[in-house]
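for the writeup, i need someone to sanity check this before i put it in the appendix. the sequnce is what the collaborator sent (i think, or maybe the updated version? ugh). structure was predicted straight from it, no edits. if anything looks off just tell me and ill rerun, i have time this weekend
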Amino acid sequence: MNVDAKSLENKLRELHPEIGRHGLNLALAFDSNKDAWIVTLQKDEHKLSTHLERKDAEACLEGVQCVYLGVQIAQFIKNFETGS
């Protein structure tokens, strides 16, 4: 399956509505060396970058929520809400 940034962004926002609910900026870039998508979340001065393996990105587009990414998003939200 071919994954493009816009489709992946839309699906991540759909599967993880807390991104929009908390006003997080979401950026995606494919790293061919890692064969993975680099997912960057930012809110004010807080920033988190993590990677999403190609197979996980493909599964995401098929509607399968990536648990690892969900945990990362939840931790990021917790950190910026508490000021960490």
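Residues 36 and 53 are 4 Å apart (CA to CA). Residues 5-82 form one domain.
thx in advance!!
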